[in-house]
Amino acid sequence: MGRIDIVLSDEVERQLREEIVKELGMKKGNISIAIEQAIVMWIASKKTKRSNAAKKAWEKRKYNNVK
Question: Using CA atoms, how far apart are residues 24 and 20, in angstroms rounded to an integer?
């Protein structure tokens, strides 16, 4: 299992903890669960963006070769 230490502004940390308590409750490990979910979503969105960009480039290349 990996470990990453991060530094957040006080306001972001407060908001994060507040939302985690609302969504998951005050249970040990919930911050890790929420942050891991957020990271997984961030990675997926980046992969989707790259995939869409590659599809557009492929379509453009294919269209230019047809001319």
Answer: 5
